[in-house]
Design a protein that fits this description.
The structure holds two protein chains of two kinds. Chain A is of the alpha/beta class. In chain A, 34% of the residues lie in helices and 29% in strands. In chain A, the strands form two sheets. Chain A has a six-stranded mixed sheet, sandwiched between helices. Chain A has a four-stranded antiparallel sheet with strand order 2-1-4-5. Classes of the chains: A alpha/beta, B alpha+beta. Chain A binds chain B through residues 47, 51, 54, 56-57, 76-77, 80-81, 83-85, 88-89, 91-93, 95, 97-100, 104, 108-109, 111-113, 158-159, 162, 170, and chain B through 3, 6-7, 10-11, 14, 391-392, 395-403, 405, 492-494, 496-497, 499-500. Chain B: The chain crosses the membrane at residues 20-40, 362-387, 414-436, 456-480. Chain B: This is ABC3 transporter permease protein domain-containing protein.
């Protein structure tokens, strides 16, 4: 069952007096529970597509359907609620809130929505997440007291705290050394299996791309490859043309 | 603690330099506000105390002048030539006042100005003598009924001689001013000595020789002008033109007004007029003597109108009763068709109370200018802070914070800064006021006595001064934060992706 449907999505950006086409009519489906990599070189449109799936940017044309709901007509308030309830975000630069400690950063999204859970439920859930990402001993530390890998683990826990159906990660390993990057991807994969959360991450690291169940390759704003692991490249090219 | 407050509190410490810039402005603003308002309030309270305790009581009743407002100092009119009206139906008005359950004591009075100068100057001042005031002392005369006045006002103590007694003619001057008079006259003036005073009023100049009966000193350290002197009411009435003949009209014949009716002004100075003037044959000396022997008009013009009073001053049982009594009296005057008006001490103090208003207005204008500058600087600093936190705001928006949360966060920061630093400023101001009070800075002259509300600068910070300053600085903080918040609200969630 497709949790995300992208139909002929285009995105143009004004650049001085000219318009640049960052995404040129892209279509694909993402199944629930998938671990997906969106790969491609810099400027291929990876981040732009992630932004549109994450509802933090709007397509110039086309439709993004999430969990069966078309998102193009939603108001700012509805988009905010949708992001809060359905989506989780992991950023390339971690984007932790500097004045909050590890525990508070993870807790933060829970304080934003209207859904309320008991204090005991909240505490045990955050503690479980902290244990899962291996940061229990660092709960009172501020982000600037953590390494890059630790910060990204906090970001992963924060993205998961609202129990979203989809987690979007924009180049989550770009600011990490390769060993730490692999650990982060492994952690994401582990959580994907345990919680059945759909993970979509963008990367240009070929080694990391291959860990994904489903690979979408982009070049110059178009999909050049869309295949599940195990499918051959020729088959995927056919799929794209269809 | 809500997450917005927690984050706002920590952000203030996270961005120390910006917080200090904003905070210093807010603290200085609060300090100026507290000290300024305390100064004005102290001054106003001092003047109020001085006037209500010494001159005006709690309620002040006067006649109505069409030329301007009536105060203790006369009619405020262009040129200042209008005479102070007397209270019509004085006895009726006085009984209305005394019958009110709110009234404690009341008495009638009148005021006027006079000059004391060396004898060679005791003639109607011409242009030259008016400019030569180096050997003249001014007296601000309070014409009082000695039987009642000292019961109503008990704020002076006699330092030499005695108070005026009922029916006694004479002057009671301040001890400080007696020294000034002695200096101006070039001789030592003692109790019992007579001095020649020259009354000045719209009725003209009147000379009277009066004995100095006593000298007084104000009981409290209030801004009481040393020129104030008490005189018996009948002397003042004569000097102020409140006499039985003051309003009499003399019928003139057509021949007496012939010259006044001429339309040709040149003719007034030509030979034609002399030719046209009635020529009586013969000079009847007996007739002239007979005319001069009739001094009735002169006597009447110098006989005090014993029923004439310019003001009634009233002490209420409680100071807070003044407004109610004023309303009752004004309603009664209107109902009875009496051309009089009741007011508070400020109406009575006229230009003196306005001096506080002028200081307050100048202070307020200066504060508004300062506030605008402060708002601009604070706003600019907040905007820089917002721009620096674009990625953080974008991240919060991306992970589910709505615009209301961002607004609350920045408003909480502004409110905490405003509250914290304005409290520091207000506390500092209270300490500065205490230090200034302990230094006992003397006023030195009448102008500063009025400004200080007494002989010494005595700043007292009231809870109202303290709270008002904090509230105003909260408003300044809020206003300065409006534009930065609007900038923050325009930051899109996609900015999270551009965070480096």
């Amino acid at each position: 069952m497709a949790i995300i449907e992208i139909h002929d999505v285009k995105k143009n950006y004004p650049l001085g007096k000219v318009e640049v086409q960052a995404v040129k009519g892209v279509s694909f489906l993402i199944e629930k529970g998938d671990f997906i990599s969106i790969a491609g070189p810099s400027g291929s449109g990876k981040t732009t597509i992630l932004n549109m799936i994450g509802l933090i940017d709007k397509p110039t044309a086309g439709e993004v359907i999430i969990d069966g709901k078309a998102t193009s007509g939603l108001s700012d308030k509805e988009l905010t609620r949708f992001r809060h309830e359905v989506l989780g975000f992991i950023f390339q630069s971690f984007n932790l809130i500097p004045v909050l400690n590890v525990w508070e950063n993870i807790e933060f999204p829970l304080l934003l929505g209207k859904t309320r859970i008991t204090k005991e439920e909240k505490n045990s859930w955050i503690d479980w997440l902290m244990a899962e990402v291996g940061l229990t001993e660092w709960k009172t530390h501020k982000p600037n007291e953590l390494s890059g890998g630790q910060r990204q683990r906090v970001a992963i826990a924060r993205a998961l705290v609202t129990k979203p159906q989809i987690v979007l990660a924009d180049e989550p390993t770009a600011n990490l050394d390769s060993a730490t990057g692999e650990q982060i991807i492994e952690l994401m994969k582990k959580i994907n299996r345990e919680l059945e959360t759909t993970f979509i991450f963008s990367t240009h690291d070929a080694k990391i791309v291959e860990i994904a169940d489903h690979i979408i390759r982009l070049r110059d704003g178009t999909v050049t490859e869309n295949r599940r692991r195990g499918e051959d490249v020729a088959a995927s090219a056919t799929t794209v043309e269809e | 603690m809500p997450v917005t407050l927690r984050m706002a509190f920590r952000n203030i410490f996270e961005h120390k330099s910006k917080s200090l810039i904003i905070g210093t402005l807010l603290a200085v603003g609060a300090l100026i506000l507290v000290l300024g308002n305390s100064f004005i309030d102290t001054s106003e309270a001092g003047i109020k105390r001085t006037f209500t305790d010494n001159y005006t009581g709690d309620v002040f009743i006067s006649g109505i002048s069409e030329d301007g407002d009536v105060s203790l100092f006369g009619v405020t009119s262009p040129g200042g030539l209008s005479s102070t009206p007397t209270i019509p139906d004085y006895e009726k008005v006085l009984s209305m006042v005394r019958e009110s359950p709110l009234t404690s004591k009341a008495t009638g009075m009148a005021t006027g100005f006079a000059l004391v100068s060396k004898e060679e100057n005791n003639e109607a001042p011409n242009q030259d003598s008016q400019s030569d005031t180096s050997n003249m002392a001014i007296l601000f005369l309070f014409g009082i009924d000695a039987t009642e006045y000292w019961n109503v006002f008990n704020s002076t103590e006699i330092t030499a001689g005695k108070l005026l007694e009922p029916g006694q003619t004479g002057l009671v001057v301040s001890d400080a001013h007696l020294a000034t008079i002695s200096k101006k006259l070039g001789k030592e003036v003692k109790i019992g000595d007579k001095i020649l005073i020259q009354g000045i009023s719209s009725a003209g100049f009147r000379l009277r020789e009066l004995p100095i009966v006593g000298t007084y000193h104000p009981k409290s350290e209030s801004a009481m002008p040393e020129q104030m002197a008490f005189v018996d009411i009948d002397t003042l009435r004569v000097m102020a033109g409140m006499t039985v003949g003051a309003n009499e009209a003399i019928d003139l014949k057509a021949s007496d007004t012939a010259m006044l009716n001429t339309e040709n002004t040149d003719a007034l100075f030509g030979d034609d007029l002399l030719e046209a003037a009635p020529q009586k044959s013969g000079f009847d000396e007996a007739k002239i003597k007979a005319q001069l022997a009739d001094t009735t008009a002169r006597v009447r013009a110098n006989t005090a109108d014993t029923g004439a009073w310019q003001f009634i001053v009233v002490r209420t049982k409680k100071a807070s009763d003044a407004s109610a009594l004023i309303k009752y009296l004004n309603d009664s005057f209107q109902k009875e068709g009496i051309h009089a008006v009741a007011g508070n001490w400020q109406k009575a103090a006229g230009p003196y109370s306005q001096s506080v208003d002028v200081v307050r207005t100048v202070f307020t204008i200066a504060l508004i200018i300062l506030a605008i500058v402060a708002i601009l600087i604070i706003m600019n600093t907040f905007v820089i802070s917002v721009i620096e936190r674009t990625g953080e705001i974008g991240t919060m928006r991306a992970i589910g914070a709505d615009k209301g949360f961002i607004r609350k966060l920045f408003n909480a920061e502004a409110a905490m800064l405003s509250l914290g630093f304005s409290t520091i400023g207000a506390v500092l101001a209270t300490l500065v006021a205490a230090v200034l009070r302990s230094l006992k800075i003397a006023a030195g002259n009448t102008f500063f006595e009025i400004l200080f509300g007494g002989k010494y600068l005595s700043l007292i910070v009231t809870p109202a001064n303290f709270i008002t300053a904090i509230v105003i600085m909260l408003v300044v903080g809020y206003l300065a934060n409006l534009y930065p918040v609007s900038v923050a609200l325009k930051i899109q969630p996609v900015k999270a992706m551009q965070n480096e």
